[in-house]
């Protein structure tokens, strides 16, 4: 079965074709980052208008690349949410319209399900069950993933998401939007241990996170210092060390408490090299294997939506839909 995936939840227009036999056939992406940069964040109305401009040409380009056409597609998966309302509406309208015109199912996919399943695009891929650390601009969650549609929330942020904390701290350091990867780059120039920032909820007896206090502590530190280039890098490093320490500690605790032996790291912050290094280091002498999606599949993309749609479709064709899954799907 061949599924076209459409992702338009925020500032990337992504489309992809996933085949249940052959895997990912192709994917294309248009990023709006340059358009939003001048405003210091995503402008929702501009995002929706740009998705409208980009999505059909991207689909045409994808068909050309993969030498296929809409007639060969068995279903269209689109990001249902969460995300910006107007941006989501664009993908949903186009997905539903194309599916209606071709008399095939339209599959609404939860954006986080796309991120959660994205490591299945890589080789080697994890097998069910696995633990997942989902760290994006809007979410920070630890999940137990037992099967397609069977996701148990183990813990989550009680305030800011990890990506949001990266972006807000990056802004305080004068970096462009979205600042997560720029802050990480700046941190590579930082002197270790010059500053120490708090590691919120590191010792709380649960799997929840809190990052708004860390961001405030970074803001206070920045306000107290003469911010020359070296100091900016030192603050960036102190921030990155603090946030990654918390993400690593809670992930390790989740693995210990669930007994799961595979950890998947998904979402944009999963691209962070320091987080990857620390997790690998912490788990090197254990039986746990860590899976990181390729960098292009960490941030928003159409491939993860096409994949989730294909797996959902396969499941609908073989099994009754899960009764207790966190995410629902209508076909
Ligand atoms: O998953 P994603 O593309 O979009 C959402 O669903 O939110 O994640 C975007 C987030 C942004 O906050 C961005 O700054 C962060 O991921 N990010 C990073 C890195 N690359 C992207 N944060 C830290 N280090 C990175 N290398
Ligand atoms: Zn995302």
From TrEMBL:
Q: Which GO terms describe its cellular component?
A: cytoplasm
* Residues of the Gcp-like domain: 24-306
Q: Which cofactors are reported in the record for this sequence?
A: Fe(2+)
Keyword tRNA processing appears in the UniProt entry: yes
Q: What protein does this entry describe?
A: tRNA N6-adenosine threonylcarbamoyltransferase
Which PANTHER family does the UniProt record give?
TRNA N6-ADENOSINE THREONYLCARBAMOYLTRANSFERASE, TRNA N6-ADENOSINE THREONYLCARBAMOYLTRANSFERASE, MITOCHONDRIAL
Q: Which organism is it from?
A: Nitrosomonas stercoris
> CDD domains of this UniProt entry?
ASKHA_NBD_TsaD_bac (cd24133)
The record's catalysed reaction(s) read: L-threonylcarbamoyladenylate + adenosine(37) in tRNA = N(6)-L-threonylcarbamoyladenosine(37) in tRNA + AMP + H(+)
**What family does the Swiss-Prot or TrEMBL record give for this protein?**
Belongs to the KAE1 / TsaD family.
Please list the residues that bind Fe cation.
Answer: 111, 115, 300
Q: Which domain of life is it from?
A: Bacteria
Report the HAMAP family cross-referenced here.
Answer: TsaD
Q: What class of enzyme is it?
A: transferase
Binding residue positions for substrate: 134-138, 167, 180, 272
């Amino acid at each position: 079965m061949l599924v076209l995936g459409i992702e338009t939840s925020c500032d990337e227009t992504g489309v992809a074709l996933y085949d249940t036999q052959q895997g990912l056939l192709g994917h294309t992406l248009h990023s709006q980052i340059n358009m939003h940069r001048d405003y210091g964040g995503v402008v929702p109305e501009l995002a929706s208008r740009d998705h409208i401009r980009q999505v059909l040409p991207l689909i045409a380009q994808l068909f050309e690349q993969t030498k296929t056409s809409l007639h060969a597609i068995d279903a269209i998966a689109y990001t249902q949410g969460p995300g910006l309302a107007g941006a989501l509406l664009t993908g949903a309208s186009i997905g539903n319209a194309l599916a209606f015109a071709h008399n095939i199912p339209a599959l609404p996919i939860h954006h986080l399900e796309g991120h959660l399943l994205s490591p299945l695009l890589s080789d080697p891929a994890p097998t069910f069950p696995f633990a997942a650390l989902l760290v994006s601009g809007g979410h920070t969650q630890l999940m137990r993933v037992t099967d397609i549609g069977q996701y148990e929330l183990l813990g989550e942020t009680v305030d800011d998401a990890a990506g949001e904390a990266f972006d807000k701290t990056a802004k305080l350091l004068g970096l462009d939007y979205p600042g997560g990867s720029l802050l990480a780059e700046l941190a590579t120039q930082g002197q270790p241990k010059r500053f120490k920032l708090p590691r919120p909820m590191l010792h709380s007896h649960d799997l929840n996170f809190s990052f708004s206090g860390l961001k405030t502590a970074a803001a206070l530190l920045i306000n107290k210092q003469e911010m020359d280039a070296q100091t900016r890098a030192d603050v960036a490093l102190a921030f990155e060390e603090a946030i990654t320490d918390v993400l690593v500690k809670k992930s390790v605790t989740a693995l210990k408490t669930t007994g799961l032996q595979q950890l998947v790291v998904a979402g944009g912050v999963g691209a962070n090299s320091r987080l990857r290094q620390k997790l690998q280091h912490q788990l090197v002498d254990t039986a746990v294997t860590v899976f990181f999606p390729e960098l292009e599949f960490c941030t928003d993309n159409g491939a993860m939506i096409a994949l989730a749609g294909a797996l959902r479709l396969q499941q609908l064709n073989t099994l009754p839909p899960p009764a207790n899954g966190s995410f629902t799907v209508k076909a």
